[in-house]
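Work Package 3 (structural annotation) set out to generate three-dimensional models for the target panel prioritized at the project kickoff. During this period the team completed the workflow that converts sequence records into discrete structure tokens, so that structures can be stored uniformly alongside our sequence database. As a representative example, we reproduce one entry of 101 residues exactly as it appears in the project archive.
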Amino acid sequence: ELRRAEIEELRRELEQERFERRDQINKIRYEFEEFVHRKIDRVLNEIEEMKASEKQDDNAQQRQIDGLVADLDRLKENLFNVQSAWHKLVSNTITAGAEPA
């Protein structure tokens, strides 16, 4: 009878240890899942920040490109005006030189 009581006590202790181990494993698993979710959220936030930053950079580059295009259009128009003025000067010089003095 004493032996049975000892065996029963050992079984209860073993069951208690199993329960505690299972509880610790579950706790560790939940803590790890929480940790992973926090890391994932942080990475996703950083990705969103990078996208926003790149969009700002893209917008700034587009404004610079638009400014360059406008500058080139003005340059082209001014070169056309210079060419027209040069053509008039040459025409006037040739016409004035062809007239008898």
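Helices lie at 2-98.
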